Amino acid sequence: MTPRVTNHIAEILLSIENVSLSFGGVKAVAAVSFDIRKGEICAIIGPNGAGKTSMLNIINGFYHPQQGRITFKGVTRSKMRAYQAAAGGIARTFQNVALFRGMTVLDNIMAGRTLHMRRGFFLQLLRFGPAQTEEIAHRHRVEEIIDLLRIQSIRKTIVGQLPYGLQKRVELARALAMEPDLLLLDEPMAGMNVEEKEDMSRYILDVNRHQNMTIALIEHDMGVVMDLSDRVVVLDHGIKIAEGTPQEIKTNQAVINAYLGVAH
Amino acid sequence: MSISAAARSDTFPKLLAHHARVRGGRPAFRHKDLGIWQVWTWAQTHEEIRAFASGLSQLGIVCGDTVAIVGSNRPRLYWSITAAQMLGAIPVPVYADAVADEVAHVLVDAEVKLAVAQDQEQVDKIQSIAGRIPRLTKILYDEARGLRDYDHSHLHAIDDIIREGRDALGRDAQFASWLDREIEAGEGAAPSIILYTSGTTGRSKGVVLTGRGSIAAATDSVAFDRLGEADEAFAYLPMAWVGDHFLNYAKSMVAGFCVSCPESADTAMADMREIGPTYFFAPPRVLEQMLTRVLIRMEDASALKRGLFHYFLGLARRHGEKLLNGDKVSLTGRALYFVGRVLVYGPLMNALGFSRVRVALTAGEAIGGELFSFYRSLGLNLKQFYGQTEAFLCLTAQADGEVFPDTVGRVMPNVDLRIADDGEVQFKSPGMFVNYFRDPTRTSASMTADGYVKTGDAGFFDPKSGQLKIIDRVSDVGRLTDGTLFAPKYLENKLKFFPNIREVVAFGNGRDFVTVMLNIDLAAVGDWAERHNIAYASYQELAAHPEVYDLVARHVADVNRALADDGMMAQIRRFLILHKELDADDGEVTRTQKVRRPIVAERYASLINALYDGSHAADIATEVTFEDGRKGVLSARINIRDMEAAVPSAGPAHVAPARGAAERAA
């Protein structure tokens, strides 16, 4: 395989400038700035409580930062609702799987297509004419994702009956179904065994390469982070302490201190 | 009729052209892709394969070259077989799940020039061994996924090759007519395919078959099962296995029926249900897995459903097989069975994908009587046959109304089958192999002086049914001191078909009588013990319980009766139940649960002595290895039970021994 060339002057998709967020007296994120470039896999790492998930929540509009600016696809804003973020092309998965447990895998992934559906509620209810044509087109897209993630055998299975590793994969599938410009993955490998992690890494790379999808992910498994990501952002106590290629981060003294602690 | 027309063709490419002419509009292949069944008609298939052959020719494949095919059941992989055959090249299907080393053995042995792989996994595998295969120049693949960044100087997508082949045919009329002449001139007596044996008995051998022979064997079998173009088959078994190649490829090419390929191995059973094949083949282990899945799911069903299921299953056991065989059944029985069909059997068969099955076949290993009867009592016309790769499968087969669990049928038309003096089954058949590929030594070793093929299986013709019974490998068959035949596996299988018995090791070669050591099945006997108020704390305690000995003694007596009916077999005179289960960790069985006789004989030498010196109990201390690697010693005093010899019954033959398993509930 040829090594991938990361273009460091690639177009910036998302730019975080000086963003701060606090809950009461707790500063979750303090004056953090970094960019996510088009087509890259950017990992956000840090010890527990570093503010990683808060950062994702800020990016997809679930939390509103008290300070700072966020520029996504060239549009700058300080406040955005979650549904606006979704419509604008940001999709995410959650640390704890958040699927519709009583629905089939297929229905869950189809739900990811909702924002792309143009036909009215009643027409969809009747599955008539243009609504039917539209549903077939969406189903085709969903089937491509099912094929990409190799979940054909559980297509009609109720999500609640699936093991955890597969639920994670279904959640990724649903996020992909949105065809987002930016995919946020919150600990995609948490609670998985080595084999499942290898599979998941493979799928994340497939998605990144074949669909040229920009991905920001939070992950604790350093092996996975170093193998997958093009760039790594390190947070500690809400502050960005380092940013760079996996090689640079591995040798960064501030990062080593944050993870291992330092003698005072 | 089409079959006779087909029989005049002596190569598969000629058959394909025949079907494209006669039934061009009928489906030939189906494959589920992106959740939707894609269909190719015979005319389309012919066009695609002809273009594929043209593309292969452009890649430099010529008559006599060998082409490996590595992957699971996919239309394009089946097409690559015929495409190679059009050029006179010889396809060599390889087991997709084989590790790189095994694949390397086959590819080197067959000297392949080109490999057709299903996907990235197989491409990786072949590339990792490419250095060892000097003649290999090109690799083709079906699924492009993950291969985008690969070096494509020797790697091509099948679709590209087909497209380029089609362009070449359109561009160059001379080339097109040359290809058609090649197909027409295909020689029926030339090698058509090489199928590698699975290699359970040593290094795998390449069995060379001709087109004429393959088609003749398939034609006989198609006529026997009355298959036609309207039948539906489902391809889910390994393409490299003779079972799939014979039953799906060769027979569909003869009869003109459609073969459906599943979306993936994981979805095969669900896909089969959607297709509803009319003609189905499964080795016993697949049938067993399906049954287990049903039983487990029934345990989770509501009490009402569970009650209905068990009631009607009992009813089916009493009447189902008789109805299938056309025997007499009382009016009440018939009426109740009809109700059962509406409430239970029909929905169950539908869930298994068997609703439309007209002919179901099983072979490959001995099948348990209870398992066999279960499917037949539901109304599935399950039958057995016997064959091997060297014969291109069918040597004997069961006809409708002549079906028994412990026989493999009468000799097929045109097959010449005999039992040698040492009990070995030997044959001459239309589909007989030419030789083992470039291995004259083993080829001549497998033939008798007068041209019969030695199967290596010992068997005999059952005097009552006139059908063949296979008892064991010839090399394992021995004799008692009085000369009576002793076939350990035959006898062990009979016992193992009882759910209560897990493992059996029989002794007798060179002895005065036959004895067995066995393991009970902890789950099954534990369940039985619970319902009979027998308390136990461990396997050892349960195994030593006198009532468990009584239970097992009844099973042994059943087997002895069956052996007495066979007439020529030694019966079991003494048995004991081992205090521990034979375990792979202790090296007593292989990881695939096959008993290692020499090791067992060594570890339990004191018990074996006791079995033959007339004592009624023996002490044993065995070293056991725990799962964490620690070792301990397990000692026990084990009882030995004597058995009476049974006399042949005058009643109806072929009471499947395993039906006595009703005793579990008794």
Biggest sheet, spatial arrangement of strands of chain B: 4-3-5-6-7
Looking at CATH, the homologous superfamily of the largest domain in chain A is P-loop containing nucleotide triphosphate hydrolases
Largest interface, Cβ cutoff 8 Å: A-B, 17 and 13 residues
Distance between the termini of chain A: 46 Å
Structural class of chain B: alpha/beta
The radius of gyration of chain B is 27 Å
Described by the principal axes of the CA atoms, the overall outline of chain B is globular
Question: How does CATH name the architecture of the largest domain in chain A?
Answer: 3-Layer(aba) Sandwich
The low-confidence parts of chain A are: 1-7
Give the assembly state of these chains: heterodimer
Strand content of chain A: 15-25%
Helix content bin of chain B: 40-55%
Largest sheet of chain A: 6 strands, mixed
In the residues of chain A, how many domains can be counted? 2
In short:
The complex is a heterodimer of chains A (264) and B (666). Chain A is an alpha/beta fold. Chain A has helices at residues 52-59, 82-88, 105-111, 121-126, 130-149, 164-177, 194-210, 222-228, 246-250, 253-260, and strands at 12-23, 26-37, 41-45, 67-72, 75-77, 90-93, 182-186, 214-218, 231-236, 239-244.
